[in-house]
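Tokens as discussed.
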């Protein structure tokens, strides 16, 4: 039976991109205002009892002491309870899960889940992400995110005949969707040839196989399901969630054609929601690289292992396909401001379930949307959240 104890009553974000003109606190305030403005029947900010702030600011900037606790003051809520959540790329997804548990437990009634990240104020030459994901001084020497994911691409090609064109089709589809998302960092359509001819990064991944570094913020408001009617006549409920971990180092991996943490997290989420992969109408998944989306849709059970590339190039994951994936443009086009990413994905799921996604709107049959992130050193952690517009 679906969990459905908590409702998402509002959600919003600001346009992702290179936001040099906005401070960390300004972005948080804009995202909060967007979430407030989305509540159908109006919302008094004083109703927020606690905030769960998702950010990698402490790790990326060396400012652990102020990484989360400046947000309540910046958004006009100084004095409320506030907890910072940092769990690699799924930080926003996990903050959402923790916020949901706080409401379901009865500890708090109305909570704010907010993700904020400044990625562009420092260059990659300053070791921003390398420092955040540093590991063993020998085993991980020279590793970057593309270096971690490229072996999965080459092994997938070797075992299943996946082609570079299949990888490229993921980027083409997500940029198509991003061009229709006013909040996306990149709003340009591309072709398979564009992807194949882009500068190489780490074989077989080229520049357009990789997501950008992006600034951004996103926020969601959660309340008990039995209070949802106070805020909206179109509530969306949290049906289930799951978290799982895996070995952090490549030399510890048992396979390079799947991410076990994603499989385990999704199984836990499906079980809590009382559904299976076939009940999902659309999904926002972690496409930090094109190969990652292919692994995701296999590990989440949307197709059999080895068929993710085929599913993509044949259009099954397009807006009009059997299972639309990354309708927002995904990380590849929308961007990946780490702390905000998961909450922005959940906002897209919320819009889709409320049929507010404009020209990105997909057909809904079962009334379920899935959101997924995987990350950390060696994709060592994954979080899956499932939303539904079905009351039970």
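Sequence:
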């Amino acid at each position: 039976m679906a969990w459905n104890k908590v409702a998402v009553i509002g959600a919003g974000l600001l346009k992702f991109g290179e936001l040099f003109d906005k401070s960390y606190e300004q972005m948080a305030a804009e995202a909060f205002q967007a979430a407030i403005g989305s509540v159908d029947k109006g919302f008094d900010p004083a109703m927020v009892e606690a905030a769960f702030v998702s950010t990698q600011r402490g790790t990326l900037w060396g400012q652990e002491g102020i990484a989360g606790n400046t947000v309540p003051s910046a958004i006009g809520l100084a004095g409320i309870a506030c907890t910072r959540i940092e769990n690699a790329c799924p930080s926003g997804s996990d903050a959402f899960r923790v916020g949901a548990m706080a409401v379901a437990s009865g500890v708090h009634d109305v909570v704010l889940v907010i993700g904020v990240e400044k990625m562009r104020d420092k260059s990659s030459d300053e070791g921003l992400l390398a420092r955040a994901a540093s590991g063993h001084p020998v085993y991980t020497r020279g590793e970057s995110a593309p270096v971690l994911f490229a072996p999965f691409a080459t092994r997938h090609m070797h075992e299943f005949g996946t082609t570079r064109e299949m990888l490229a089709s993921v980027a083409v589809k997500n940029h198509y969707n991003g061009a229709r998302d006013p909040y996306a960092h990149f709003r340009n359509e591309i072709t398979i040839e564009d992807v194949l001819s882009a500068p190489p990064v780490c074989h077989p991944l080229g520049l357009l196989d990789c997501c950008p570094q992006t600034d951004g913020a996103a926020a969601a408001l959660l309340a008990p399901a039995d209070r949802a009617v106070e805020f909206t006549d179109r509530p969306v409920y949290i049906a289930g969630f799951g978290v799982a971990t895996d070995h952090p180092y490549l030399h510890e991996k048992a396979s390079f054609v799947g991410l076990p943490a994603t499989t385990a997290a999704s199984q836990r989420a499906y079980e809590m929601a009382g559904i299976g992969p076939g009940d999902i109408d659309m999904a926002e998944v972690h496409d930090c690289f094109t190969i990652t989306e292919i692994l995701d849709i296999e590990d989440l059970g949307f197709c059999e292992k080895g068929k993710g590339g085929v599913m993509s190039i044949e259009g099954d994951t397009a807006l009009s396909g059997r299972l639309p994936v990354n309708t927002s443009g995904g990380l590849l086009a929308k961007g990946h401001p780490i702390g905000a990413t998961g909450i922005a994905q959940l906002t897209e799921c919320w819009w889709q379930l409320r049929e507010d996604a404009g020209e990105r709107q997909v057909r809904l049959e079962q009334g379920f949307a899935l959101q997924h992130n995987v990350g950390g050193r060696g994709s060592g952690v994954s979080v899956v959240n499932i939303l539904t517009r079905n009351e039970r």
